[in-house]
Amino acid sequence: MDLGLKGRVALVCASTGGLGLASAQALAEEGAAVAVTGRRAERAAGIAAGLGHAVGIGVDLTAPDAADTLVDTVTAALGPVDVLVLNGPGPAPGTAADLEPEDMVRAVTRLAAGHVALVRRVLPGMRERGWGRIVAIGSSGVAAPIPGLVSSNAGRAALAGYLKTLAGEVAADGVTVNLALPGRIATDRVAFLDREQAERTGRGADEVRAAAETAIPAGRYGRPDEFGTLVAFLSSTRASYITGSAVRCDGGLISGL
Fold first, then answer.
1. What's the whole-number mean pLDDT along residues 89-112?
2. Which CATH superfamily is domain 9-185+222-249 in?
3. What residue spans define the domains of the chain?
């Protein structure tokens, strides 16, 4: 299936590892020109060198004016952004009972505010050209909040609410807005969370993973490339009538519809 991404310009946030990297690779495989971004400029450049038509950019999206600087750099190197993949590192684990008001502010700032700035920067061009794709890499916690990850649950839910509202406002302009929700995908982030749970419960990390896998109908953690394929599809011309949706890639983990 041709996803119609050849020649499109894709900006993938936090794409030097994990799900962001898998998404950048999937988009590049479909012929998109990809901007690989991350705080480590050298790593971003190294990854981009292996993707073909790509550029690596070092950026801290929490810095003032980061969105403008990043989009200007991508546009100068590759052209106007057609596909925006929102992504970022998850906050530290924690419980709702221990959450301080300032923790909530940090969670929303980290997981939503910077992404809103990027959307505002690329959206006018997308609407003017009559074509655009915005895909946010979220978490299954958007569908079913995950115990012990209150900051992630809250910040990602805030972004999801914003994007759902936006989807209805821009659909007639040829711009789709969706969320891709990973379950337990075998990334460094998930391995870290398994180790954290192991330390809290006095179990081994392998035991924690085995227990988690038994709760997944597919019986295993997902592969990053399986998730990247979902992001590429939601970014494609083939997905032109899918918008305002939260699509899970979780092996059946979430029991709700």
1. 90
2. NAD(P)-binding Rossmann-like Domain (3.40.50.720)
3. 9-185+222-249
The 8-class DSSP code of residue 246 comes to: E
The predicted model scores a pTM of 0.94
Q: Which two tokens stand for residue 92?
A: 């530290």
How far is residue 149's CA from residue 20's CA, in Å, rounded to a whole number? Answer: 20
Over residues 90-117, the mean pLDDT reads 91
Residue 102 phi, psi (nearest 5) = -70, -25
Question: What H or E segment, with its residue span, contains residue 137?
Answer: strand 132-137
Packing angle, helices 18-29 and 224-234, rounded to 10: 60
Q: In what order do the strands lie in the sheet with 175-182?
A: 54-58, 33-38, 9-12, 83-86, 132-137, 175-182, 246-249
Per-residue pLDDT tens digits for 211-220: 899 999 999 9
Q: Which residues pair with 33 in a beta bridge?
A: 9
